[in-house]
Amino acid sequence: MNSSATNRVSYTLDSTLESVNRAENKALEMAARGGFSEDSQHNIAMAVREAAVNAVLHGNAYDPRKKFVVAYEITPQALVITITDQGRGLDLESIPDPLSPENLMKNSGRGIFLIRAFMDEVKIRNLNPGTEITLVKNVGREAANAKEETK
Amino acid sequence: MTMKASNRQVDAVTIVDLSGRITLGEGSVVLRDTVRDLASKGHKQILLNLGDVTYIDSSGIGELVSAFTTIRNQGGDLKLLNLTKKVHDLLQITKLYTVFDVKDDEAAAIQSFAKK
Question: Helix, strand or coil for residue A84?
């Protein structure tokens, strides 16, 4: 683990499902620290889980030599989470719309869709090799109120 | 919390009580194995009780879809019972809420199979 400041922490993790659970649990903890509502905490943690699954499963393909990095940062405006893998890269054009009738009954392909549904901003960058996905959840009124109450 | 599944038989309907998390890995596998086992034994009317399911990820959603398709392809029917708010919302977002027959009363759900 590397920690550069109180409000920013990053982890370099093995390409395993245990790491996915770790990334998810840390997201839950950081979202709670950021003052987000219980629903938002759940949604943020789920988005991080989906992104971590993509990194481990589709990016690094469970390769024990490859790692993925998860960085969490709480700013006054937002919780920002960046997940970077060492895989072949993500072809955004090839991601089908899971809501279209021909894809609705497919067994997979909903991860990125759910991430976008749960976060305010999602940026995906090809690193050639590797993929970096940045998830942003803005501090809303509910979080601001929660912070006021704890003062 | 790992996922658990146990079966009950009420008339011709097999009720599968699920609890825990349906996520990539163990939870999804438990659901897949349970439904495949029931299908192979000729059970065609399946009611998945999700009342104690605390969490489903995209892999778990895919597994629900797969279970639905497996039973339908065998001429049967699979319905969902007792969705938590989070699971309900997830099925709404993914437009699957209208695909599944979702019930919130067990007795009524069992009767709905008989009507077919």
Answer: strand
